[in-house]
């Protein structure tokens, strides 16, 4: 029997039982939908962060008071001596020592739990403007002389309250009002996008800290070896702190750390989504088994006409593959739509780093995968059908 005849038989069997075929592929659709959307968003965020870090932050080093990147906060934060030690390293252009925390923000009788970034304004402006190239969306940069004034992130200004915050409006934090003098343009970083940026004196009063910092952003002079500067910072901090419980990460190392976290997370989520696909595979296998029982006489006729076992096997395996492929096509389309919808919602909510990564490699890979899942699911029922005795099937036994 020709390949076209095998495909024709398989296609006819599917179209004759539309409802049964539709119910069968639902499990595959759900599994593929979840896999496509999770992989798309996982790699999209990963690629965006890596790109931003390695391009904008190529000459920037992040210093954190813990070796456990992304882990819980530690009690021993940085102090002025640590900052001075880093600032005196050869090749360092500027150091932004900051305290990053969370607080309840109030605006026009509405509350929002947001971020507060405490910095030295002049150093903050230097790094964000000169090193990273960001500018205020409205208003101006916060200055050292600003007392109860603040700068805020774009998402906090535009999406966090019913009414947008504008220049001259006031935000209340812990019963104290802060006048908005600047709104930072979109950065895609949720930390700054949803932050109120306060000067050091005011911020220390708010968080009841004194010359204490939980992060440092170091800009390196142009032409200097960033990795060499990073190693010297490690040595100086070790002498200053008396321990090695801190992290000094170049843009490259930071990207690698983030990538490793996202890879593990993506694998876990795809594994969970794979459970749905397994359910779909079982559904295909069950459908093929029932189909063979219903068409025993047809199998007998084909064999009586000279069809070989491999031909019968091919018909049912191709049919199962088509069920998997159809489920894969629908699931891929829905998965892409969901990923794009999440990207859109995240963008208008100020989380610009959430991106959907769609490529031909992903689409083709998922469709081939769903087709193979269908084939494997239908193989064993098909094999049992191919081995049926034609005499017995024609007798109805």
Automatic annotation (TrEMBL):
Keywords per UniProt: Cell membrane, Membrane, Transmembrane, Transmembrane helix
Location of the protein in the cell: Cell membrane
Q: Which InterPro entries match?
A: ABC3_permease_C (IPR003838), MacB_PCD (IPR025857), Macrolide_Exporter_MacB (IPR050250)
Topology versus the membrane: Multi-pass membrane protein
Recorded GO MF terms? transmembrane transporter activity
Indicate the segments forming the MacB-like periplasmic core domain, all copies.
21-235
> Organism's domain of life?
Archaea
Q: Name one GO cellular component term.
A: plasma membrane
Keyword Transmembrane annotated? yes
Domain annotation ABC3 transporter permease C-terminal: ranges: 272-390
Q: What residues form the membrane-spanning segments? A: 21-45, 264-289, 310-338, 358-380
**Protein family:** Belongs to the ABC-4 integral membrane protein family.
From the Swiss-Prot or TrEMBL record, give the protein name: Conserved hypothetical membrane protein
Q: Give the organism, scientific name.
A: Methanococcus maripaludis (strain DSM 14266 / JCM 13030 / NBRC 101832 / S2 / LL)
